[in-house]
Structure formats: structure tokens, C-alpha cells
Design a protein that fits this description.
By secondary structure, the protein is mainly beta. It has 4 domains: about 100 residues, Immunoglobulin-like; about 30 residues, no CATH class; about 70 residues, no CATH class; about 140 residues, Jelly Rolls. The protein has 1 helix and 31 strands. Strands 21, 22, 24, 27, 28, 29 and 31 form a 7-stranded antiparallel sheet that branches. A 5-stranded antiparallel sheet has the order 5-2-7-8-9, with no helix packed on it. A 4-stranded antiparallel sheet has the order 14-20-16-17, with no helix packed on it. It starts with about 25 loop residues before the first strand and ends with a strand.
Length: about 425
Amino acid sequence: MSALKLAIASLAICLPASLPAAPTLTTIQDVIYNADGTPYNGFAVINWTPFTAGGSSQIGTQSVTVNIVNGNLYVQLVPTTNSTPAGYYTVTFNSGGNNQFTEMWAVPPSTQPLHIAEVLITSPPGTSPLSGGTPIPESSVTGLLADLAVRPMEGTAWSTGRVAFIDSSGALDAVTGNVSDCLHVDGSSGPCGTSGTAGPSFTDAEVPSGAVDGANTTFTISQVPTPSSSLSLYRNGVLQKAGLDYTLAGNTVQFQAASTPQPGDTLLASYRVTPSGSPQGPLAPQILCAGMGSATSSASITTLGTCTIPAGTIQPGDRVKISFDYSHEGTLAGFAFTVNWGNTVLVSRSANASETFITGRAEAGVGSSAAQVSVQTWGASMNLAATVLNAYDLLSFPLTLSFQGQMAAATTDTLTLRNFTAERLPATQ
């Protein structure tokens, strides 16, 4: 460090002898270099606004210029970190007649000389470095208002310390009820239990009544499984398949001849029963199947996708919605497509070589003896076709929905089953 001392910036205002002594100064002493490693030569102009120093000394607006020779900076300033309000200095460096850069300093009280790095600040005291002291409006933040608009909001029934559910407007509300209640999926609550009106009951490992003699095929269980698909029937520990090994009507199990229980066999039945008049909240739609199919270039009928619905899944009063989409790639040949409900053909249509897309919808209202099905199909250029028919397939057996297609002639064109879904809307009464 050069022994040359530069002009000392005296910030104290001359006061009469009866007033407090001038404030103690802090020394900032450092060596400044250019980016190429040579010493910085120029001067620094230090400015400040009025503040009250830590010793109650009033510091007025002023500035001081400090020469920097061979990189040596030396100046003494009144501390600002303990001032009122918290003050700071603005330091502008000038070299070769150009203002090159400006810094802000917050000077703490110190008996030892400080380097610039120890007093350098990025924003005025008490302000955000990002905002530069000015609050940022919400509208100025890209995407903030949109993100805030889609976040879950507190509903009118919001409460702390409770289970939350989403109300009809998308807001979060608290579930009301007793601490011992059970919660339903619709946000309602009620007494827990296994009988009466509280909820479904479960029967495990019940032995069906009936003679196990190799000839009897009819057995009964104590209650009607609700739903019927909840029945799990075991013969010697092997799960029997509904519709293949047996059929269920009410609480009566009728074995197929090939599956007749033999002497010494063990039968066990497990199922659940939901008491009438006690729904566990609204029944939710059930996705029976959904997926993508395959493609074909064959002139023979080809199954492009299937959906097998287990026996007893669909009940009288249910409604089943089916959707499907085909696409035709190429322009060399026409094509045909077919959709089947078990053994019942719901739709069978042909399209010319210029057709590119086919879509269709079917809805089945399930009755006690048949399902009444309405079907609509149309294409990008093919006209809408609609029909209504009855499907008499037994729902106590597995039901297979099949989506088929074929080209009108051998070709490099393809017919693709892009997507298919089957949704069950359960009966509520």
C-alpha cells in the first residue's frame, strides 16, 4: 500500500463546543485494479442524502471526491448502518473523463480499516434487491395471475382440523360430522358399521348349503351378494369362474354339469352385501375398458380390439356407453368395420377409399331381459347413420365387446382402431 494518503472526507458539520463531538469515522482503504491487472487511476465521487448518525449527529447532503492513484483508495466516512434512517453512500468511479461504474456502500462502525467488499451492497437498505425498492405488481409477473386463478380456493365451509373435499364449485370445504363417522366419496359422512344403514357387510368363507354328493348342482348362500360380481366362490381352494363354472341367481348358485362338486369337495363363498336404502354416497361411473387397438391391411375380417366384461358386472338399470374411433391410412381401397355386443352386431358399415376417419357412439340401457342399444356412426365424409336395437346376450356370463375391420381388397392401406372405451353408469335404485 502506498504511503500516499489522499484527501480525507470530513462529513461532520462544524458545531459549537457545547454540542456533541463529531461522529467517529470508519476508514475504507483498498487497492483497485483494472480488468487487465493494471492499477486503476482516476477518482471516485461519493454522494449521500441526509441522515442522523449513531451519535445523534446530523449529516447533511453533500459529496466528496477522492483521488485514486496507482489503485490506492483511502477515505473516512460516517457509519451508516446505525443511522436513522439507514443511510448509504453512492460511489461513482471516473477514469479518463468517463463515469465507468457506480456502487452503493453501507458503512458499519469499525476501528479497523475496511475493504470495499465489506461495505458494498446491491440495493438500498430495507429494499428488495430484485425490485430495486419498488414493489412488483402481481400483473407484472408472467403467468402469476393465471396460476393463482387455478389454485384450489377455500370454500364457504372451510375449516381447519377437518378432512377436506372438493365442492361443486371446485373449492375446498371441510367435511362435517362426528369424529367417529365414516367419510363417503361425495364428502358426506355417517356412522360406520357393517349392518343396518351404516354400510356394506362382508361375508367371508361361508359354506354354501346343499348336498356335496357328485349329483347335486344347486347350492344356496345365506344372502344375496350385492353386487353379484363380489361373489368369490372356491371349490377345494380353486376360484370358480362365473358363467363358466357356475351361474348366480339371487342367493342360488347353480354349478355347470362339468363342475359338479364331488364327494369330499370343500365349497367356500365370500361376498359383500350393501343394505337397501343405504347408499354409500352417489355411485361413480365405472370404466369397464379403455385403450388403443391394432391395425390391419387384410381383406379378411380382423379383430382390432376387445373388451371382456366379467359376468354379473352389468346389472339391470345400468347404462353402458361405448365410444370408438377408426382411421384409414391410404387411398387405394375402401374398408368395412363392425362392432359387436357379445353375439349381437351393433353396427356394420363400409366406407370408400377416400374416407379418412370414422367414429361412433353406442349407449345400452340394460333391462331385466335385454339391453336396448342406440348406435350412431359417421365419418369425415360418410353420412351419419343411427339405429336402435335389442341385445339379448345374458349378462350372467362374461360379455365381450369386439371392434373389427377389414380392407375391401388386398392393399397396402391400413385400417386402424385408434381408441375405444366402455363406461358403466350404475343404477342408483
